[in-house]
Amino acid sequence: MAISSPGVGSGLDVNSIVTQLVAIEKQPLQALQVKASSLQSQLSLYGTIKSQVSALKDAASTLASATSWASQAATSSNTAAATVSVDSTATATSFGLDITRLAQSQTTASRSIAAGASLGAGSGTGQLSIQLGSWGPAGAGPFVAGAGAAVNINVSETDTYTTIANAINAANAGVKATVLKIGNTERLSFQSTTSGSDAGFSIASNGGFAALDSLSFTSLGNGSESALGMESSQVGLNATLKINGVALESATNTVANMVPGVTLNLSQTTTPGSPVQINVAQDKVALQKNIQTFADAYSALSKTLADATKYVQGGRSGVLQGDSTTVGLQSLMRTIIGSSSTGSTYTRLSEVGLEQQTDGSLKLNTTKLATAMGDVSNLQKLFTTNNSNAATNGFGLKLRDLASGLLAADGTVSNKSTALQGAISRNGKEQDRVNDRAAVVEKRLRAQYSALDAQMAKMSGLSSFVTAQLAQWNKTS
Question: How much is the pTM?
Answer without folding.
Answer: 0.69
